[in-house]
């Protein structure tokens, strides 16, 4: 009887903590996805590497992070062609990351937004699912980037 009570108490405590834990979990998962899928090109601290991949932070990212569909869009479609960055013009090829689940793309996009760029908000799983159903092309993403930076 005592054991049953303890199990009930434990699951109650779990339920109470679940909502709180979810936010924290997305943070951890975002950092993990970043380290396993992005850091080899964009580097540990998202600082980028010349000739390999641009930084995912810095003055441009104050603006790019606000275009909520941009980062998840790039993960779904990839990116190529010259882009002007804080470090100068960059011209490489990023392969699509669309093997990542909606959850993983939401988590790593939120990680970029919050942890890397110190902004508020989150990219939700529902937003990523909607983007995946109707993905932006690379040229649409390039136009979105230009527009975000012009603001
Ligand atoms: C194989 C190397 C590689 C991997 C892995 C990679 N990227 Fe990229 N990424 C690039 C390159 C190269 C570019 C720039 C493409 C260009 O020059 O147009 C880029 C561009 C981007 C951009 C647009 C940057 C800007 O200034 O507009 C974002 C956002 C981005 N990557 C996020 C990520 C995230 C998040 C991951 C992990 C899920 C990731 N990338 C994985 C190479 C990579």
Automatic annotation (TrEMBL):
Record-linked SUPFAM superfamilies: Cytochrome c
Iron as UniProt keyword: yes
The record's PROSITE patterns line, in alphabetical order, gives: CYTC (PS51007)
Gene Ontology molecular function: electron transfer activity; heme binding; metal ion binding
Asked whether the UniProt record includes Kinase among its keywords, one would answer: no
Q: Which InterPro entries match?
A: Cyt_c-like_dom (IPR009056), Cyt_c-like_dom_sf (IPR036909), Cytochrome_c-type_DH (IPR051459)
Q: Which residues form the Cytochrome c domain?
A: 25-116
Q: Which UniProt keywords apply?
A: Heme, Iron, Metal-binding, Signal
Which region is the signal sequence? 1-21
Report the protein name in the record: Nitrite reductase (NO-forming)/cytochrome c oxidase subunit 2
Species per Swiss-Prot/TrEMBL record: Pseudoduganella namucuonensis
